[in-house]
Amino acid sequence: MSAQRCIHTKRNGQPCGGFALAGSRFCFAHDPQQATKRDEARRRGGKAGRVLTLSAADTSVRSLGDVVTLIEDTINDVRNGRMDSRTANTIGYLANISIKAIEQSELEVRLEALEAVLEPERGEAVSWRRGA
Ligand SMILES: [Zn+2]
User: So where are the chain's domains?
Assistant: First the structure.
């Protein structure tokens, strides 16, 4: 049996490249005859993701350590089939936003500390210039 490639063309014009199913010119994702099975798989995947999301304890994402833990848990959940990739993608996206927000707030704290040190000097410079 030769490993034929799926003949489906993606929206970007590139060929799908997935392996065609036996006796089909399409892969599982693109074979019109697999639509019902696909829907079932999607429903199962979606349900698995929902159940996990709802039953999992609330996770804190206030520190970089929290976010790293969340990403670590998500990677393991996906690898062990406990979470669907769509949920994992969403978590990855939100984790990225959290990291940026944490970095931003840390930067603000450091900037404020820096300004607190520089402020008296700046005040002196202003009064010195006024006096001149
Ligand atoms: Zn395909």
Answer: 1-50, 64-131
Q: Could you tell me the end-to-end alpha-carbon distance of the chain, in angstroms, rounded to an integer?
A: 92
Distance from residue 1's CA to the centre of ligand 1 (Å)? 18
127 or 15, greater pLDDT: 15
Residue 129: strand pairing partners: none
Q: Rounded to the nearest whole angstrom, what is the distance from the C-alpha of residue 22 to the centroid of ligand 1?
A: 13
Strands (E), the chain: none
Other CB atoms within 10 A of residue 46 CB? 13
Please tell me whether residue 19 adopts helix, strand or coil conformation.
strand
To the question of pTM greater than 0.85 for the whole model, the response is no
Show the tokens assigned to 46. Answer: 């979606």
Compute the CA torsion angle 52, 48, 26, 18 (nearest 10 deg): 30
Tens of pLDDT, residues 97-127:
999 999 999 999 999 999 888 877 655 555 5
Q: How many CB atoms lie within 10 A of CB 67?
A: 21
Cα-to-centroid distance, 43 and ligand 1 (Å): 20
